[in-house]
Amino acid sequence: AKSEGRGTYRFFEATMGAQVRDRRLLEHDLRYAVARGEMRLVYQPQSDAATGAVIGFEVLLRWQHPERGAVSPAIFIPVAEESGVILQLGEWVLREACREAATWKNPLTVAVNVSGVQVHAPNLVPLVQDVLHETGLAPERLEIEVTETALIREPARAQATLRQLKSIGVRIAMDDFGTGYSSLSNLRSYPFDKIKIDASFIRTVDSNEQTAAIVRSVLGLGRGLGMPVLAEGVETEEELRFLVKENCAAVQGFLMGRPSPIATFSHFTHPAPGG
Ligand code: C2E
Ligand code: CA
Ligand code: CA
Ligand code: CA
């Protein structure tokens, strides 16, 4: 039994080593992924809940690894954050997204996810200014999505950065609302223009009375604060019906459209004259 125990321990040690090695490999590959053309952006429509009109797109990053295939952002974004690679990666996403949005014939919004590491870096505001200047995109058309967890490291600094972004005309959305810490005080401390209710609440909004009550209160909160609310992860007609009935401003999810290459949506971004 004793030798079996040692074997288990050695096995455990070996697996740990393999995990660490694998993470380092991933981190290494991540550093070169943009230069090697393995990264691309997909766009998911955000629509006016009442009319169904497309009002903007959220930009989501995709990594096609030469050996591993598609790697989920849920896997590589944390690695990019811990290694600092997110700074270069995030800059690339911002530039590409703004460059793309500047070509659209309709003045739709482009929503870019920004990591806490970027919010706490000293150069986010000048970077955003440079990119807007360089691409010619109107600041009001850029929306920065941040989660509450992204702000907790140095709240005062995060607050100052978001205020500066807002002062140049950029919009700020609170992402994943309801899943972070002390959401209510955050709504007061940071200059948010929009609340995005997390998909986990939308999933059962049509089938669970408690979830429905929570979502109704968030919608009331948004009304009281003058902040439009967008519901994320809308997958069914029943969920959409509930949200429309409760006067939710905007919706996003597979029901309205999956994240796809921007060409898929050219009838929204480049409508034909008169059509
Ligand atoms: P997120 O910002 O909350 O993005 C929404 C996620 O939900 C996306 O996953 C999207 O594909 C997925 N989604 C949208 N509609 C539906 C739906 O109706 N049902 C379901 N089940 N899922 C839906 P994705 O693209 O895998 O991204 C995961 C997370 O990775 C994002 O969550 C975001 O936190 C992060 N991420 C993605 N791209 C970037 C980026 O460019 N920069 C940073 N910092 N983070 C990113
Ligand atoms: Ca987001
Ligand atoms: Ca979200
Ligand atoms: Ca449902």
From TrEMBL:
What protein am I looking at?
Diguanylate cyclase (GGDEF)-like protein/PAS domain S-box-containing protein
What range of the intact protein is shown? Answer: 513 to 787 of 795
User: EAL domain: which residues?
Assistant: 23-273
